[in-house]
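Students often ask why we bother encoding 3D structure as a string. The short answer is that it lets us treat folding as translation between two languages. Here is a chain of 188 residues written in the first language.
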Amino acid sequence: MPSYDGSRARFRFADRHIAVFAHLLDGETPPDELWESLTELRRIGLVGDEGELSPLLGELLGTLADPVVMIQVEITGAHGPVNHGVAVGRDAVISHDGWPGEEESEYVSIEPNTLVWELARKVNLHRGKKPEDGAPEVRVATTMAALDAAFVALEEPGPGRPRHPRPRPPGPRRGRPRPRGPATRKYP
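And here it is in the second language, the structure alphabet:
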């Protein structure tokens, strides 16, 4: 069931409610399979009888309808996958957080300068315990060769698994493009 907290300007919507808003913004009547969702939005006063949208939705829908940047994060944990995200618009930044086992996500406007911290929170990235004095420094170093090896391993046919080649760019050249420095740059 959709809801909103007017005192904190936050909303709870499922994807089906966002789909209703998209149809209404385009001047369309939502299809029959979204009729129940439209009724729920009307019941809480966010959509009028003629399909007019509440002014409370202006910032949210303006950002979702015309984002400059969309960031989607899927976290898989003990309760299954949960989706989170951020939409950066011209005038606002909207964050949404899912909850395990719940259909709705919470949508809230955030300050643009907190975007990095908001994304870190979504993936539970935070500082751990400070290492003790004298503890060896742990570093993980890798190159693109490790990623290439992972792709090769994925391409290898396994027992009962046919080989599905990775799509290659058209043309005779294979592999990653080589960077050209000033000495090898060709001019017309």
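Translate back mentally: The helical segments are 15-25, 35-43, 58-65, 115-122, 144-155. Keep this in mind for the problem set.
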